[in-house]
Amino acid sequence: MLVDQLGRMKKLNAAFFYEYEVDEHGKMVRLFWADATSRKNYKHFPDVLSFDSTYSTNQYDMVFAPFTGINHHMQSVFFAAGFLADETIEEYTWMFQAFLRAMGGIAPRLIITDECARIAGDEKFWERLNKCVWRSEKPAKFEERWHSLISDFKLEGNVWLAKRFDLRKSWIPAYFMDIPLAGILRTTSRSESENAFFKSFVGRKLAYVEFWLRFDTALQCQRQEELIADNSSIHTTPTLLTTWEIERQGSEIFTHEVFALFQKRVNAAREDCDVQTTTIVDGTKIFEVSDAWGVREVHFDSTTMIAKCSCKLFECKGILCRHIIRVFRASKLNELPSIYVLKRWEKKCKRDAVYDGEGNLLEENAISSAETAIRRKIATARNMVEEIIRDARTSEEVIDFVNTGLSNLQSSLVQKFQTVPPTRHEEQETFIGTSIPTQVAVLTASDTCSRGTCARIRGHRDDAKRGAGKKKKKDPNLKVPRQCGLCKEVGFHDARKCPKKT
């Protein structure tokens, strides 16, 4: 029925995308989907993609694989997801090809995936390794630190580390510092966090239909958080720390989350940075800017308004570094050049209409005018009834009159508009949001379902029932207050030991 549900959503919105494949027995082995909002999000934030699969979301042991990115509030944003029967190269190739088809063939600049292998080591090793990986700004520096690390810890014979070094151009930041925004995602922690978020709603060992209902709830919660952040960024103003015009401009353009990072760098440029020397080479000014971490070199062309720093923070994360901000200040440049205001970080970056390759508007279907009119009439009727009750509650006679009138109105409605109560089958279809097919065209991934029925959401009554038959052991040292039969006071005595007894 999950495939039927996806098909229904495709009919409601042509921008909804889904694909699936079955094996020779008609069992589903691959499934991929992305709704209109997800595809729109990817159009706005296609820079970096995090991908990590997880189990324990369904009773068929299919691998759940969400695609995650980062939005303009530095929040995780859902792009697409799918189910796979197995974790093979062929399965993942199909999944990524489906993703490209859904996103108009636009591939992300960088994909962060999980590496299953683990190595153990002491704290000193990990401290050195982190410095080697994350603080090496140039490939030569990384290789120098890596060889020193391997030599100092006598790991020349470690095959796993040797393979990692051979693949260094695929995972060491120093090799892709020039890839725009490659630094906003450094590990699969985003995907792991996203998986944990969905699991908090989804649970484990669910049928596909129940999985979909819970997954959709989780997705709506995530999107609601983005709307709340949008509202906060647009309608509130952050507190400024300096009198610099460049800070005020940033507060008006960037979302609050991005501005907080930008403001931190503006303040650091004022407090910690100092221009040591300035030279001119072929019309380009070269500044040496010092801070607590060392000296950086900033090249600034005042004609094109392009500045480049040796730390490459802007290229890596899309937010200006303290060194360039300090150079702008020294050059008496009070406004941010447009080249350093990335649209993906702006408050209103998602206002523009976005279309897919077939010309479909990537937007969830709005409520029809007819449905809006019905909702308005229902609200009017509800307000009238509430107002009548509010006016009538001061008199019992008036309340009786209102109850009689409502009872007569209800009887008239039944006689004039006789309705047939829905069957259980119809109620189930309304609940899951799609019709239940009479014939099943796509089978589940397994011939045999798990023993027992599908898990349901447990409530507080279940916890009460679970402990109903268990007798709690009384603590012999625990005293329970009671009322004295003589003085009628509540305490830890009775009539025999009452202090007021004469």
TrEMBL record:
<keyword id="KW-0479">Metal-binding</keyword>
<keyword id="KW-0539">Nucleus</keyword>
<dbReference type="Pfam" id="PF10551">
    <property type="entry name" value="MULE"/>
</dbReference>
<keyword id="KW-0863">Zinc-finger</keyword>
<comment type="function">
    <text>Putative transcription activator involved in regulating light control of development.</text>
</comment>
<keyword id="KW-0862">Zinc</keyword>
<dbReference type="InterPro" id="IPR006564">
    <property type="entry name" value="Znf_PMZ"/>
</dbReference>
<protein>
    <recommendedName>
        <fullName>Protein FAR1-RELATED SEQUENCE</fullName>
    </recommendedName>
</protein>
<dbReference type="Pfam" id="PF04434">
    <property type="entry name" value="SWIM"/>
</dbReference>
<dbReference type="GO" id="GO:0005634">
    <property type="term" value="C:nucleus"/>
</dbReference>
<dbReference type="InterPro" id="IPR007527">
    <property type="entry name" value="Znf_SWIM"/>
</dbReference>
<dbReference type="InterPro" id="IPR031052">
    <property type="entry name" value="FHY3/FAR1"/>
</dbReference>
<dbReference type="GO" id="GO:0008270">
    <property type="term" value="F:zinc ion binding"/>
</dbReference>
<comment type="similarity">
    <text>Belongs to the FHY3/FAR1 family.</text>
</comment>
<feature type="domain" description="SWIM-type">
    <location>
        <begin position="296"/>
        <end position="332"/>
    </location>
</feature>
<dbReference type="InterPro" id="IPR018289">
    <property type="entry name" value="MULE_transposase_dom"/>
</dbReference>
<dbReference type="GO" id="GO:0006355">
    <property type="term" value="P:regulation of DNA-templated transcription"/>
</dbReference>
